[in-house]
Amino acid sequence: MSKGNSSSISAKKESSLHRFLKFRYSENGATETPVGDFVCDGLSDGGEYIEVQTGSFGPLKEKVNYLTLSGKVRIIHPIISQKRIELYNSDGSLLRKRKSPAKGSAWDVFNALIYAPEFPTLKNLAIELAIVDVIEKRVDDGRGSWRRRGVSITDRLVSVWHQSIVLAKPNDYKQFIPYKKSERFSVRDLAEKAGIKIILARKAVYVLAKTGLIERTGKLGNAWQYKKC
Predict the structure, then answer these.
(1) Tens of pLDDT along 164-208?
(2) Distance between CA atoms of 3 and 217, rounded to whole angstroms?
(3) At a CB cut-off of 8 Å and minimum separation 6, what does 202 contact?
């Protein structure tokens, strides 16, 4: 959310997923809380500033840097484990529904952290991954992305809550390094061991190196090698 009065998101534009998480983590409905020139999504019962961010963490950098100077901040980042898609026509009639083959995991946090790799080392900042299943509602209105052939995404609703994973300090990210200190690994090695795409493994390695949890040790053939610090 942006600075000043214009930072409030209208109920019409805020997704059900975002709203669900905002109220789940905010104490007694304490949402849209002004803090200096910013407005945070809410306050927890422990007095933490709550920010729900479904996409990249890049847009949060200025706000988070400001908020962490005056208190504790918790970014709630949903990870969609399973998605069911419902397609409607423009008059609201359900055309069809299906299960998306894509499945999310905690590793997806690096898609957001790649734009703010310093976040794991910031004092007073915790990132909490909310692992959920969602129903994604789409409308065949001809105004959506060309990738979806004009179909618009109108809302995402939480259908199942699985668990949350808290990343509150750099050492919490060691769970993403499935190697012993004596072992060397490449980006491709990590991708294969973790069962993730190589582009995501590359993002993870970049962030983990920036966090000081791994370091580059040299090359084996054409591939850079890394080790746990």
Answers:
(1) 999 999 999 999 999 999 999 999 999 999 999 999 999 999 999
(2) 43
(3) 187
Please state, in angstroms and rounded to a whole number, the distance separating the CA atoms of residues 80 and 91: 28
pTM above 0.85, yes or no: yes
Beta strands in 89-151 (DSSP E): 94-99, 125-139
- 190 Cβ contact list (under 8 Å, min separation 6): 178, 196, 201, 204, 205
* CATH T-level fold of 172-229: Arc Repressor Mutant, subunit A (1.10.10)
Name the amino acid, one letter, at 206.
Y
C-alpha neighbours within 13 Å on the C-beta side of residue 55 = 5
* Domain ranges for the chain: 5-168, 172-229
- Bridge partners, residue 35, by sequence: 38
Q: How far is it, in rounded angstroms, from Cα 54 to Cα 223?
A: 33
Residue pair 217/184 in contact (Cβ under 8 Å)? The answer is yes
